[in-house]
Automatic annotation (TrEMBL):
Pfam families for the chain: PALP
Protein name as it appears in the record: Tryptophan synthase beta chain-like PALP domain-containing protein
Organism in which the protein naturally occurs: Fusarium kuroshium
Taxonomy, superkingdom: Eukaryota
Domain Tryptophan synthase beta chain-like PALP residue range list: 6-211
Length: 218
């Protein structure tokens, strides 16, 4: 019997998780992404067994930069596929499973791997489930922990700054969507902003400086 398809608009971590889970469980996964996303993302999802639907950007949008209006077109296409194929919509922007997974998983893992020696958490936010779940978990274990949200320079809507660059090169967040549900009643100790150049520099630094040491089997 053919399993129900799963569809979601995603080009970030959610795409990888859903691709793997759907492959294991036998559900076809349809990833809907904007053509404004980096070209490497589609082949990565195809390699994990997903079907990829590419959605054209809004006229005048900057290639390589996904804006809020671009994301709205992707959302529209995801809804069409949901109806046409009778697919289950993962809906990472509203379902409680998003923040709960980070509360029970990511947050708990951070606590365990640091033996509780964690004083702060900084997160570049997209749908904001990661921030909400991890923050709730850490603050339940250590009320003094400080948690910060990172947004792109020029698109810091959560910090209530004027939007001057809705289109920016940092993909996976900074959608200029102030009303997403996950931050309701979740404390924020501060807001930080980062430029596209700073994000690129940080990514390259991590890629070249991380050293993995072999561990002997025990």
């Amino acid at each position: 019997m053919r399993c129900q398809p799963v569809v979601e608009l995603t080009s970030g971590n959610t795409r990888t998780g859903l691709s793997i889970v759907c492959a294991i469980k036998g559900h076809p996964f349809i990833a809907v992404i904007s053509r404004g996303n980096s070209i490497e993302r589609a082949p990565m999802m195809l390699a994990l067994g997903a079907e990829v639907v590419l959605v054209d950007q809004m006229p005048g949008s900057v290639p390589g930069q996904v804006s809020g209006p671009d994301l709205a077109l992707v959302e529209q296409k995801a809804k069409e596929i949901e109806m046409e194929r009778g697919a289950f919509r993962a809906d990472q922007f509203t379902r409680d499973g998003n923040w709960m997974a980070h509360h029970d998983g990511t947050g708990a893992e951070l606590w365990q791997q640091t033996d509780g020696h964690i004083d702060g958490f900084v997160n570049f936010v997209g749908p904001r489930g990661t921030y909400a779940g991890v923050t709730k978990k850490l603050e339940s274990l250590k009320p003094s922990v400080k948690c910060f949200i990172v947004e792109p320079v020029g698109a810091a809507v959560l910090a209530k700054e004027q939007v001057t660059q809705a289109e920016h090169p940092i993909q996976g967040g900074g959608y200029v969507m102030p009303d997403l549900v996950y931050l309701k009643d979740v404390p924020v100790d501060g807001y930080l902003q980062v430029t596209g150049d700073q994000a690129r520099e940080g990514a390259r630094l991590l890629a070249t400086s991380l050293v993995v040491s072999p561990v002997a089997p025990t």
